[in-house]
Amino acid sequence: MSHPRISAFAGRANGNAKPVRVIEGQSTRFARTTHDLALDTIHDEIVAPNSFAEAILFFRGGASGEEKPIRIIQGPDTLLRNPDNVAVDAVHNEVFVASREGAVFVYPREANGNVAPIRILQGPQTKIRQANRVAIDSENDLMFVTTRFGSVLTFPRAAQGDTAPTAVISGPKTLLSDEHAPYRVAVYPEGKRIFVGVGGSHPLSGAVGGFVAVWKYGDNGDVPPWALIPSTPLTGLNHPFGGVALNPKAKEIMVLENSQPPGLLVFRVPELF
Amino acid sequence: MYTPVHCNANEEVGSDEMKRNSLVSLMGPVLLALAWLAVNQFPAATAQGPKESDRQTLVLNRAPVRVIRDQYSSFNGITMDEERREVYIADDNHSKILVYDAEFPPTDRVIEPRRQIAGPQTHLGYICTLAISPEDQEIFTVDNDWKDNMTVFPIDAKGNVAPLRELNVDHGAWGIFLDRKHNELFITIEHAHKISVYSKKAQGKEEPARFIQGPETGLADPHGIYVDPESNEIFVTNHGHWRKTEVGDKGVIVSFRRPTPSDSIKEFPASTGKFLPPSITVYARDAQGDAKPLRTISGPATRMNLPLGIYEVSGSRLLAVANAGDSSILFFDRSASGNTAPVRVIQGPATGIEGPSGVYVDSKRNELWVTNWNSHTATIYPSNASGNVAPKRVLRSAPKGAPVTGFGNPGGIVYDAKRDEMLVPN
Fold first, then answer.
1. Which of B68, B148, B412 faces A263 most closely, judged by CB atoms?
2. Residues of B with Cβ-Cβ distance to A54 under 8 angstroms
3. Least Cα separation, residue A229 to chain B (angstroms)
4. Same domain assignment for residues A35 and A147
5. Do B67 and A66 touch (CB under 8 A)?
6. Residue A263 maps to which CATH number?
7. Which residues of chain A have pLDDT under 50?
């Protein structure tokens, strides 16, 4: 809990594995409470939020050690308030931050310093309220937002202002709720699927049994997940707060399990790709 | 009716629909058993609905093919009862308080704790630091995430025991110090840039007797704390990640206890975040509110780099600081101010210091203990050690050279296909 860092593990790492590289130290300007990362595969950059200093940090994709960010978005005009998440659209050169204040802020990807958002998505029509995470599918021009109150919202990628979502996944059949809130969302554009890490066993919420849920693009309303990795002794899932990442080539999904001791679990799920 | 379809195999099949239909027909007994599981685990999903909501969920109840997890204890904060000859170490990886003998012969082997406090009854979570009251025979610890509590145990507690008492604290507590002269507990709060002061016996939802917080305080992602009851001063290490906080701000990142925000159109205030250099800020012991520090130790000459634990070097005017970012221990005079170089430094490959979290100086045995979060070790030196000095002894929670995964409470994950790497932030 005491050591802010980004650890990179080999794709086939297993067991008591040591990271192949670590980005850490004062000069990285990296802090605790970093609840998300984004990867810009076109420009080979890692993007990370700093919640305490209200900043978005950009690193070289191969950064290691106490390496400084190559750009920082920070300053009064950014309107950033405790940002703990980030998404990048490398195709359209934009960076997205979901706000707990109920908004999504969008910045130019190459922005540096005190830069105002180029778009803000916010208002009663959006149904965003307390946003948890945001993900972008630049191929299908879509934006997905998870909220603290148990919903997954779909918007056009460039939505702004008080725009209603095109789809709202919410309701008892979705298995989402205040207690089972959706956190990190990852998208699979080729198969048009949405992967969501759903929290559980938070001591303050009293809920148990978080899981990974998968929906199809276009799912709308009180729709059960298309697929689910449940919380069972076999899966080892309990509180996958850290969310999911995808490796479609290997037909694997990676899930962070935040029970103690925390772990990184890799599931082979060819059915989902 | 919603019926989950369960799949345990990793077989590759044709289309999605073919695959799911074949699974339904082939997995009779397994399906029934797992359907019971799913229905009981997710009873709401059995409700009736229109066509889309009649979907059969593909339930993939299978073991992961790989799991990265550190099976060994991570050593975080440290304290000691010198008379009992006991060392107490916070293990944030496994949510344990580990108790070791303060005296042991040099060895390369793993040393088992005398006893440990661990289990669901303890309400221990991501614990960071510890304090003890020899007078009351009690041990205190704070949780940095999720549980938002301070727990208190009998000093000889063992196993899965409930705390004697528990106190709600703000989200992001890291440092704890018991001022035994004035019977007050000082707790730093990372997320709210705050020092909360409680009576030693505080419990439940008791509010702090006073707190230091606000834009003038210079508190910026505070961590370690030491209170000098003689000079009546508080010393706090800061990582320097700053945003403006108002007096009474509990840290807006915390959503679990926050009211639902309005969804009306709103104007967003200007962002206030900025990076300050790492520092040690010093306050009057009885300071409260938006109090300016009496002095600040900060600047490149200090060599501070993500400073964590801080503790007195008994019999001297020095304070030892665990400098996590460059794996060193820095010693500063208590009256230092500004851009002041440390009086001495322990650092180098011979020291075995790797990502230090905690420091404690055992005045009875004249030893400096350092907990190393990056190596499953505590390393022990003469209290006047300096330079690239080898430890007298090493306390290990894992076999020598065992890899350290370095997970804190990991908050996200991305996959880098170009490098075939999984990236995880703490």
1. B68
2. 243, 271-274
3. 5
4. no
5. no
6. 2.130.10.10
7. 203-206
Q: What's the pLDDT at B235?
A: 98
**Torsion of Cα atoms, A22 then A28 then A34 then A37, to 10°:** -70
| Same domain? A59 vs A154 | no
Which of A50, A130, A264 comes nearest B424 by C-beta?
Answer: A264
CA distance B30 to B28: 6
The CA distance from B367 to the nearest CA of chain A, in Å, is 24
**Domain boundary pick from A122, A142, A159:** A122
Hey, which residues does A186 pair with through a beta bridge? A195
pLDDT at A169: 98
Domains: count for chain A = 2
Q: By the 8 A CB rule, do A151 and A167 touch?
A: no
Q: Is the ipTM of this complex over 0.95?
A: yes
CA distance B416 to B397: 32
**Entry field: residues in chain B:** 426
With 90 as the cut, is the pLDDT of residue B425 above it?
yes
Query: Contact B77/B96 with Cβ under 8 angstroms?
Result: no
User: Rounded to whole angstroms, how far apart are CA atoms A61 and A90?
Assistant: 13
The 10 Å CB-count burial string (b at 16+, else e) for B338-357 is: eebebbbbbbeeebbbbbbb
Residues 6+ apart with CB under 8 A from B180: B133, B134, B135, B229
For the sheet with A119-122, list strands across it.
A87-89, A94-99, A103-108, A119-122
Tell whether the model's pLDDT for residue B411 goes beyond 90: no
Query: What mean pLDDT, rounded, does chain B reach?
Result: 88
Contacts 24+ apart (CB under 8 A), B203-207: B203/B152, B203/B165, B203/B166, B203/B167, B204/B165, B204/B166, B204/B167, B204/B168, B205/B168, B206/B167, B206/B168
Domain boundaries, chain B: 5-59, 75-251+270-396
- What's the pLDDT tens digit per position in B147-162? 899 999 999 999 999 9
Q: How far is the C-alpha of A20 from the C-alpha of A4, rounded, in Å?
A: 17
CATH classification code of B75-251+270-396 = 2.130.10.10
CA distance B347 to B356: 11
In the predicted structure, residue B259 carries a pLDDT above the cut 80: no
Q: What's the number of CA atoms in the CB half-sphere (13 Å) around residue B343?
A: 16
